[in-house]
Specification:
Strand 1 and strand 2 form a beta hairpin. The radius of gyration is 15 Å and the shape is globular. Helix content is 21%, strand content 29%. The chain is an alpha+beta fold.
Length: 146
């Protein structure tokens, strides 16, 4: 899969307690479908330059389908947050990053346990790739309504 494909941060927010957990894959990354290369940097909204001068964003339903396929979950269990869109510069181009909410009552821990992936609060995700840490911070602020 090309690194210029859209990337996702996945999270689960408990409906009753608002406890927020992020999905971390067995490789230690919170980015899906694959981690960013070492030489990556986040872009501010004004820094994004597109080949044709405008952004070409996918429809949230299409993104939800794509993301659910990557995770092996039913499409109705994933919702892409349409107001959270970030960009990251990697050596081969610009990657768009989306935030995806897993809508089940509880995090699908059993589904990911076989692969070594799991759900963690942001406080347990420290020390990861600097770009991922920046994106996690922005996502957490977005989720909390900040």
């Amino acid at each position: 899969m090309s690194l210029t494909e859209p990337h996702f941060l996945a999270y689960h927010k408990q409906a009753t307690s608002a406890r927020t957990l992020f999905l971390r894959m067995n490789n230690g990354s919170v980015m899906l479908p694959e981690p960013f290369p070492f030489l990556s940097s986040p872009l501010e909204p004004g820094e994004v330059v597109y080949d044709n001068g405008c952004a070409q964003l996918e429809h949230p339903a299409t993104l939800g389908q794509r993301f659910s396929t990557v995770l092996g979950l039913p499409p109705e269990s994933v919702e892409v947050e349409t107001d959270f869109i970030e960009s990251v510069e990697i050596p081969s181009g610009t990657v768009t990053v989306y935030l995806a909410r897993l809508k089940a009552m509880d995090p699908p821990r059993a589904h990911f346990a076989e692969t070594g992936a799991g759900f963690y609060p942001i406080t347990e995700l420290r020390g990861g790739h600097p770009v991922e840490m920046d994106l996690l911070r922005k996502a957490y602020e977005f989720i909390l309504g900040g």
